[in-house]
């Protein structure tokens, strides 16, 4: 009897230690939030007051949203007290156009007669082909994360189970971006395609433990990769692209070739907690500003909705253990970028037509791993 009470007490402690989910937010305070998410803000400081105000406004918005019927729930996470400027820094990725249209090694379309399976879920692969969910921090290195994750997955597939954690920092600090595609480089944004080109020309990417991530607070760092000391571990020979805006090509490439690096409009994702997201509004312009990894698709029976399964790099506190499901629809919209007012690479007209929820079908690539 005494034993089971101890066990119950331990379980209660575990349960109450977890931050509240969307249905547990009534009466949730900033003070408790600071403790739950180990925030450094000092009570009584101006910063504390500023963040408390932000938190309270977002909590109210989340609760108001959840009171309405919707296919997804909003929640509180580690981003709930970040300013809009800090949140925007998470992004930094816009669609590549001219320069990169031609540099894909080949285009992937659905082979004749191809029957896509009912669902694909690379989070359940055995042996595993996805490393743990990453945290880019306050650095617009989403593109470096999407690229690194995709190289990790391709290497694991090719080697039949050797899953290694590779260096996002090498890509963040060392990838040149002279045409300012997707931003001005490093923590200020680039594209997964540029990262693949870089790894190809550098002669490989090293492991995370040899060149560890230091850009969490937004410093891109100076490239300090030394191939003698930080052994290149995986080579990339190029990348392949699924036919743009073509749902069946994307499903086929995902099924046949593994996880894909993709571009999306994530400008309203911050509060997503669970369910099938449909918050990208096609009446507005799409603002594709984020790079992530596409790892599956399926059908949610309870909601009766088809979805794409996407791995984000905003830590496991975001969404469904770090993942988000986007509704698999066939709507399209015009992407007009917010970074340069329409330029994917500097000086280009990159007003593009992008399809799928949040533009998910527009820019779908995977690295060719040697
Ligand atoms: C790389 O490291 C090796 C071994 O320590 C050293 O000899 C070489 O000079 C370094 N290269 C650069 C470019 O720093
Ligand atoms: C990558 O390719 C380069 C050039 O072909 C080669 O020297 C190097 O050994 C390769 N590295 C790996 C890890 O395969
Ligand atoms: C996708 O590509 C195939 C050819 O591979 C084509 O038949 C189909 O119409 C395309 N779908 C869309 C939505 O463009
Ligand atoms: C979508 O955006 C349009 C134009 O800004 C707006 O009128 C509409 O209310 C929005 N719809 C939703 C569901 O947010
Ligand atoms: C979409 O972008 C265009 C070009 O920047 C702009 O003129 C238009 O007002 C935008 N539409 C909406 C609904 O924001
Ligand atoms: C930019 O490209 C879009 C889509 O191709 C086109 O509709 C638009 O007219 C172009 N704008 C300019 C200024 O060339």
Automatic annotation (TrEMBL):
Single GO molecular function: cysteine-type peptidase activity
Record-level GO BP terms: proteolysis
Peptidase C1A papain C-terminal domain location: 116-342
Keywords: Disulfide bond, Signal
Similarity field: Belongs to the peptidase C1 family.
Signal sequence region: 1-17
Organism of origin: Bodo saltans
Protein name: Cysteine peptidase, putative
Domain Cathepsin propeptide inhibitor: 30-87
InterPro entries registered for this protein in UniProt: Papain-like_cys_pep_sf, Pept_asp_AS, Pept_cys_AS, Pept_his_AS, Peptidase_C1A, Peptidase_C1A_C, Peptidase_C1A_papain-like, Prot_inhib_I29
CDD domains linked to this entry: Peptidase_C1A (cd02248)
Superkingdom of this protein's organism: Eukaryota
